[in-house]
Write a structure and sequence with these properties.
The chain is of the alpha/beta class and about 140 residues long. It has 2 domains: about 100 residues, Rossmann fold, CATH 3.40.50.720; about 35 residues, no CATH class.
């Protein structure tokens, strides 16, 4: 976990840290969960973990393509009053809002992006992304 802004309580939890949260919970540590979770992987276990790591009245977003997820609806969603959001694409206004968030919070993009491609490598990039086995990629422009 790391905080983007030391003056606020914003904390990011990477997928691999979900197990640490689960272990802390099982040890008796009182964890309310995160305010909002966003799964970008499209992987069933990650989607379920995002929902289960979110506090009561929290929000969960899904933007990753592919696969399915199965919830135990009552304990995972209804009794916790979760709001689910899903989006296939972001409008240009939302993309601008995301960019401002990244700048304001100093999100460490270099740690989040696993692949970088130039436009002439688009075919290669899309073939790789289509395998759904990679992290996050970006096209860079000079």
């Amino acid at each position: 976990m790391y905080s983007y802004d030391k003056t606020e309580s914003d904390t990011s939890v990477s997928g691999w840290q979900i197990q640490a949260l689960k272990a802390a919970h099982l040890s008796g540590l009182n964890i309310d969960g995160v305010d909002a979770a966003l799964d970008c992987s499209g992987q069933p276990d990650a989607r379920l973990a995002a929902a289960r790591a979110t506090r009561t009245w929290g929000r969960v977003g899904f933007v990753g393509e592919g696969n399915q997820v199965t919830f135990d609806v009552s304990p995972d969603l209804l009794r916790r009053q979760l709001t689910l959001h899903a989006s296939w694409t972001f409008s240009t206004l939302i993309q601008e809002e995301c960019a401002r968030f990244i700048v304001k919070r100093r999100v460490p993009l270099k740690r989040l992006l696993t692949h970088r491609f130039r436009l002439p490598q688009a075919d290669e990039a899309y073939r790789l992304f289509d395998t759904q086995t990679t992290g996050k990629g970006v096209f860079v422009f000079d």
